Amino acid sequence: MTHAPLAGRTAVVTGGSNGIGAACVRALAAAGARVAICYRTGAERAEALRGMLPGTGHRTLALDLTDPASVRHMAEAVRAACGHLDILVNSAGVTRPIPHADLDTLDEALFDQILIANARGPYSVIRALLPLLRAGGSGGTPAVVVNISSVAALNGAGSNIAYGAAKAALETMTMSLARVLGPEVRLMCVAPGPVATDFVAGRGREALEKLAAATPLRRVVEAEDVAQAVMACITHLPTSTGSRIIVDGGRML
After folding, report:
1. Is 163 a catalytic residue?
2. How far is CA 92 from the centre of its chain?
3. Three-state DSSP class for 177?
4. Which of 19, 102, 167, 220 could form a disulfide with 150 if both were Cys (CB 3.0 to 4.6 A apart)?
5. CA 166, CA 204: separation in Å to the nearest integer?
6. Each residue of 83-137: pLDDT tens digit?
7. By three-state DSSP, how is residue 35 classified?
8. Catalytic residue among 88, 163, 171, 195
9. What is the three-class DSSP state of 64?
10. Are strands 143-148 and 87-90 parallel, antiparallel or unpaired?
11. Is 71 part of a structural domain of the chain?
């Protein structure tokens, strides 16, 4: 019989149609969870992914993190379908490669866009889904929120200044919410370094391999590596909350 540690659990993954989010969707479904795949523009991609998942009860939901009404609509759809929520993975985000010295390109409007998508958006999702998360968990195990951060929150590097600032805000918010939402809800952060996805425009495999060669483990971080860290937060760290797991091959060293 296949081991399914998350059988009977429900999960929502924002940014679930591609990259790290899609890897998390696959890992959660493989562990037995019913997954809602939230997407902004990748409806066809989300449906294709849903059709490939093992198990039943998976669904796709449109979600625009910049629109509070869209967040509320998503939360209501989850409530109507499930009545509770055990796992939330906030993987959706936005960035744009801008040299840190180029303050002219990173204007206020773009800064706001990046901050809203990467910090306020996850907060809005947690806030909207909180009643369902409080009703989730099982057997004394609390519901879990895992926020996908970045080592840019720690080193001030990354694709642009606003992105690092937004992820630092996300990590601080994770600690604050962990303090006030326990014991019903745990919150964790997973902070990857550069990952082999198309999230950062123009960063191909060759560039990633060059970056990886300078790290202790000398291997490119794949989306599946990040998803496994997310799964560890959910299944193997029951007494951890407000903590950060770094997935960067030792680059921060």
Report:
1. yes
2. 6
3. helix
4. 167
5. 24
6. 999 999 999 999 999 999 999 999 999 999 999 999 999 999 999 999 999 999 8
7. strand
8. 163
9. coil
10. parallel
11. yes
Structural domain for 146, as ranges = 10-246
CA dist., res. 163 & res. 115, Å (int): 7
- Dihedral sign of CA atoms 26, 30, 31, 35 in order: positive
Helical segments of 11-120, H only = 19-30, 43-52, 68-82, 108-115
Listed in sequence order, the residues at least 6 apart from 65 whose beta carbon sits closer than 8 Å to its beta carbon are: 14, 40, 71, 92, 116, 117, 120, 121, 122, 124, 125
Q: What is the per-residue pLDDT across 149-164, written as a single tens digit (0 to 9) for each?
A: 999 999 999 899 999 9
Residue 2, in any domain of the structure: no
N residues, the chain: 253
How many domains, in total, are found in the chain?
Answer: 1
CATH code of the domain in which 18 resides: 3.40.50.720
